[in-house]
Amino acid sequence: MKSSRLMAAAAASVLVFTGLSGCAPPQKDNSDAKTESGVNAREATSAEDFGGMEGLVEAAKKEGQLNVIALPPDWANYGAIIKAFEDKYGISVNSAQPDAASQDEINAAKQQSGRSTAPDVFDLGQSVALANTSMLAPYKVAVWDDIPAAYKSADGAWVNDYGGYMSIGFDSAKVPPVTSVNDLLKPEYNGKVALNGDPTQAGAAFSGVLMVALSQGGSADDIAPGVEFFRKLKAAGNFLPVDPTPATIESGQTPVVIDWNYLNASETKKLPSWQVIVPPEHAVAGYYYQAINKEAAHPAAARLWQEFLFSDEGQNLYAAGGVRPVRADNMMADGTLDKTVAAAIPVIDGPVTVPSPQQTDKATAYLADHWAEAIG
Amino acid sequence: MKRAARAGLWVVFGVFFLFPLYAMADFSTRNLIAGGRTWQAWANLVTDHALYQAIVISLLLAVFTVVAMLVILVPTMIWVRLRAPWAMGVVEFLCLLPLTIPALVIVVGLRNVYLWVTYFLGESALTLTFVYVVLVLPFAYRALDAALSSIDLQTLTEAARSLGAGWTTTILRIVVPNIWSGILSAAFISIAVVLGEYTIASLSGYDTLQVQIVAIGKTDGPTSVAASLAVLLFGFALLLALSLVTRGRRRVQGVTA
Amino acid sequence: MPGGTLRRKKLTEAVPQALPLVPFLAVVTVFLVIPTVTVIVNAFVVDGAFSLRRVGGLFSSTALGALGSSVMLSASTAVIGAVLGAVLAWLIASSPATSMVRRAVISLCSVLAQFGGVALAFAFLATIGINGVLTVWAQQAFGWNLSGSGWLYSLTGLVLVYTYFQIPLMVIVFLPALEGLRTQWREAAVSLGASRWQYFREVAVPLLTPAFLGSALLLFANAFAAYATAAALVSQGSPIVPLLIRSALTSEVILGQSGFAYALALEMIVVVALVMVAYNVLVRRTARWLR
Known about the structure:
Chain B is mainly α. Helices cover 77% and strands 0% of the residues of chain B.
């Protein structure tokens, strides 16, 4: 056949190319980039490395920008926090993909590594954070000692920034009141119950399934009853596989949402008929993990952001969003926590479950194997 | 009876296909919270910064893809017909291969290739041009092949060259004007494909129009519906204009090709 | 093979003739062939060594379930699309050749069939989603709850939306076959005493059947490989293979193993390639009669 030679040549070149494509191109190496004063921002582990806060602020201002990801304006008051940061330091904040889940943050960092659009800082759910500590840069903020040991990693790779409780929010104008998790199986909620994300990818969804598991007789060690409940919910036609956002809540697309209490609470401010319950016997608390990308495009700005979030000002702004900031106890004792805001933080009477890293790993593995099958 | 049955069928199909389009127009002008009508969603096409950027990027991608496709494909096909007819089978096979290899498969295997591409060419979404050229190959090949078959390429080029024209002049000033309908056809279809492409752009992490539409759809239903409708209408206008330009000469596509 | 001579080419002749083909070959190789080869190779090679682990994952219940759903979705929309599309194609073929309506309909079919993935998802959200035009109207006029249990985001919803681009695709692919039926054949049959039905049964149907089946196969492959519509509609869960690939790509570790996307992509190539081979066989049979 006349084209056999061409085919042979093509095959040979394909093999050569494949061999070449197997190796990755040389990485753009700007890990040695230093600030004017000779500080390697990427390796700074505290403000001291910049010569104090002034040095850090100066280095950050030089970078001029900060890339954040997955920070909706209504989530823990991030809209106001971003604005306050921009106004205070004159650094413009690029907020990408506000509705992304924790896993999407890690994916974006990997996909865009080396690019100037890569996320500089992360705000991750527990399971995703602990699974990706290799991507986090160790950094200890100025108020490091003020943060209880249980809420930070020893080397500073991650620090809990704020927490809340898992809740069920519902539009009382559209559905009958929800008093417990089991209510959700009733026919009145047909096609109406939404979970905030996929539990293998989003921290909010993970804790949501955990709360449901507790209500069904499971525990932090056993998330299977939760998966089972969602299987039943799906079979009953009540589960709505749509990501709830303020837009979907307000337009009535997702009348019942399992999500953090602070998110549901901020919805009530906009939609008066939106009510929130935290099931008292099986409350699940969860903190989010604040971390800096090891390959941040703007490392000094990223570290300054961290300092800002944990400062009194930042923690107060968080609290205004209905969350429990990590330094809440110490700040209340000191009196630095704004009184009105402090009063709004919910107090839970019953047992509160906070899964340990080992329990989280086990639950994540179980979900990876069974969630996709359960909700089809 | 037959006429009535035919008319009835037309109506049924008409409703099935046109009603959702009407629904899109209606939905995109609706104010979901307060009720009533608003043009905000359509205004967002220009005022929403991220969406506007995505529109610009996609339009640029479409233009780049068409140019790259024409520059690569037209000389190749002319050359194959004139000087390397033995390669025609291979070229045709390669051009039709993207129909068999789903875009989803391409994007899974594309990661390593794109590490090199971004290393050499930077991070802009415009680097998607190369992959998009591959995606439009089947459509472009068919259109150009039909046009080239309908002219006497051999005689035209020989006449031009015997009068002293170089290859560039021959292609640009002799051949291209004669296959203009094929070129337009390839170009318009390529534009429609690029504007509608979602799979590769989204899974490679680039922010093109379709990716942005889906992202916005989570928070702002009406705007994403407005943008989708705009793209559909634009594609429809392009293809309708194309069919008017190539009136009378219909390429037999699909089953008998 | 069209064109070309049959004598063997000497390498010294072939090389300068092949040289101008290099840009084309380079683009196709780098951006089409290499990714495909990468997928096939990496489905069987894990960390540099041959391993059947990833391919083995294709037999887990989740992956098999997704495959089953994909096949069911593709088959049902292929059948529905083929039948309804053939009817619409017949309607178009029997209208005047240059009428504006016909041009408009064919252009609309082109747009919907090939370029409308994401837009279609939103079209249906706007029609029968929770706030859709039809839903609201049905609610107000009849008290029906059309959007019900969110079925639009599940497999049933996908079947409905997929037919929306399958029918136009059938029109585009099948119309040339219908138009290839020469009127002379019908006249010849009639002049030999055949009734309409006899002509239809004995001449038209046997000629059109390979084209019809081939088009149906094309529809199957199209639905199986389709991603955009499902991705835009279903934001949680992975009921079909393309969405399972999305999960595997975005979370890197799924079903306990990394790189599972390669195995899934391989599965997809195999299914689509098999269907396309069958399609090509049928096309050749049709082309014999309807050129």
